[in-house]
Every structure is written in C-alpha cells, then in structure tokens.
Amino acid sequence: MSFNNLDQLYRQVIMDHYKNPRNKGALEGDHLTVDMNNPTCGDRIQLQLQVEDGIVQDAKFDGEGCSISMSSASMMTQAIKGKSVEEAVKMSHVFSDIMQGKEISEEMEEELGDIQALQGVSKFPARIKCATLSWKAMEKGVDEKE
User: Fold this and answer.
1) What is the mean pLDDT of the chain?
2) Residue 60: which CATH number?
3) I want to staple 134 with a disulfide (CB 3.0 to 4.6 A). Which of 21, 71, 73, 107 is the partner?
4) Which residues form a coiled coil (predicted)?
C-alpha cells in the first residue's frame, strides 16, 4: 500500500471515530471521573472509568474539541476496556512514544489497532496535546484511584 493510500486510510479512521465516537456518554454507578482541558486549543474532556480489582471494566468520555482529541478519546476508551490498569498505563506510554515519533514493536502495533491512525500527528507538535489529552486523563484517574 502506498504512503498516500495509507495516509488516506488513517484519515478515514480518525474521521470515523470523530463522527461516530465509541463510548461517548456517562457511566452509571460507581466510577471515577477526571476532567481535563487543553487551553491551547480549547479541547475539553471528561473521562469516566469503572475500575474493579485492577481491571478497567468500562470507560466513557464526554467533551468537545477537534477531531484529533475526540477520535483519540474514542479509540483510547475502546482499547483500555478489559485491560488491567498496568496494561492501560503501558499503552498510554507507548502512545506517548508514538507521538514523539519513536518506533514501537510489532506486538504493540497490533495491540494498538486503530490508534496507529494517529501516528501522523507526531509531525505536528501543536496537535500532540490534542491527541494525548484523553490518555493523560486516564493516567491521572488511575493514579488518583491508587
């Protein structure tokens, strides 16, 4: 697949998550809530996590912002459900590495799935905060829970 075709595919994945966000809404019952914003561009997210016995049972988000921040939140909530807190935090660190333009293992590429579509953001330093906002919220939430 040529670079242009791959780039187009990645854009389609990002726009799909933006227009049809997964896990947008509010959780019922016991959960932790983290509110964060990116004052640089106005992105705002409220992340809700239901963590039981060290496992992310459910994750939802609400907020407003650019296609990158909202699609990243959609992808992240999908990816961390069913993962241990340690696995979710590790994913966040790998995502941060991607945003810094670092190479990752093939195993992690497979685990990230759609999230890889955001790797092109690393070429635009001003947009990295947009992509990492939900991930930072997740890390803050699980840190506060412990």
Assistant:
1) 92
2) 3.90.1010.10
3) 73
4) none
